[in-house]
Amino acid sequence: MGRQAKAVLYRELNKPVVVETIQVESPKRGEVTVKIGACGVCHSDLSATNGTNPQPPPMVLGHEAAGTICELGEGVTDLAIGDTVVVSWVPSCGKCRYCVMGRPALCDVSARATTTLPDGTSRLKDSKGNTLNHFAGTGVMAEYATLHRDSVIKTDPSIGMDKAAIVGCAVMTGVGAALNTAKVEPGSSCVVFGAGGIGLNAIQGCALAGANQIIAIDTSDKKLEFARAFGATDTINPATDGDAVAKVMALTAGGADYSFECIGLGATIQQAYGCIRKGGTAVVVGVAKIGEMVNLMAFMMPFTEKVLVGSMYGSARPSIDFPRLLGLYKSGRLKLDELVTATYKVDQAPQAFADMVAGVNARGVIVF
Ligand SMILES: [Zn+2]
Ligand SMILES: [Zn+2]
Q1: Reported pTM
Q2: 125 CA → ligand 1 middle, Å
Q3: How many angstroms is it from 119 CA to the middle of ligand 2?
Q4: CA of 257 to the centre of ligand 1 (A)
Q5: Beta 124-125 vs 18-24: how paired, if at all?
């Protein structure tokens, strides 16, 4: 059995994505099939198609989605057909040392299956019967997706699919970097490098945590405008304002308490480390190209006690964090409506990717 579905595929390096009708197999034991309601278009999807994050084509893209359960595999007893879910691209096993220590975003089992389901096999075939890979272990930029049960989190059905979808990557990653990874303290000063989908959420995460000062840095004035709407108190455009680190030093009287690098470049990671005060924390959220290096002056490291830390998926604990984030949205404290600045039909996927490259949206979402 299985279902036919229109899906967005990565077929060829440095070529636009293509929309095809594919076959989505029925769930095996411990799996579910989700009728996808909406799927966000994320820079990570683009990174697969341009080789920044090398991935094996042919592959169904998408990892930021919400939908409704339409079929249950054997042994899945804690979900029902019709349940609304948000997809997590880290299906934490609950048993490895990282899951047990309360850091499920670092799960060893999910880290091993990034282009398939956790058992190492695919549920996707093209019209000729060739196997397709699952991007980020999910592949949810499609009308239907079969996923491991641990890849879906049951959520409030009253929330619009386009809003719920983006909680599964951009919001979790950005807000989580501030709340979970850095644990930003009220009254603190924060700097965010890059005001794209992740950066805007890091900004609103800092705002939620009660930061006093939030400085957004980007070379696009349009993105800095978005940044102010999400809580940035100051903005720096290095293209016109000059050296970002010197500006931050002046604005914060000697360095920020926290910085968040949401771009993925060695040079900006260096700046993120450089612009914090002694004992401050610099968080690397952006995913850099393989081979990208960071250059830091080793001599000063002991004297400044700065913390440089990575943030994987906003240190997500999806089953706790997704419902919490959606609750914050419902109570009016988390901006999701303002993030979704354009929606697309699945056939418009190539345009959605082009718009992301052009930087016209806070977030573009494909609605099925
Ligand atoms: Zn993403
Ligand atoms: Zn695990």
Answers
A1: 0.96
A2: 23
A3: 14
A4: 26
A5: antiparallel
